[in-house]
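Please, structure for the following, as tokens.
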Amino acid sequence: MKDIENIINQAILNEVEGAQFYRMAASQNANPEAIEALNKLAEEEVAHIEYLRQFSKEVAGGKITVDGALSANVPSPEIYSWGKMDKQNLNLALSVFSVGMQMERDSIAFYEDAKKQVDDPQAKKVFDELIKWEKVHLDQFAAQYEIYKQEWWADQGFSPC
């Protein structure tokens, strides 16, 4: 169980870093829709932390359950849409979404690796839940990033070949 505890501790740290990143990005933004969305993303990372803390208690107690809590609370795609951006905020949005996509990819890889390190089938199911959640985030980030990338290209006066 020590391996699972170490994985959970690292996962919690990863989620704390994500929440802090979104809060920092919100503090740097002037767009009210973006600020609200970034704060909601930070709250989602906090929800991950709480889920992981509960998982940690279950591991310590020797009984792991999978309650589907993460699957039941998939974020609304609207939080990823920040409306029309001015040039400065568009640059920030592209950077935030780019970093966010990489954080989600890293989280997916982390949980996939964690699944390989544990033998407990219930622990594997918990990691599957976390992977699903992170994939939803990644897909939604990628879709919005593509929209903002097209806007950025248009603002620059060119489009890809």
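Residues 121-156 form the longest helix (36 residues). DSSP finds five helices and no strands in the chain.
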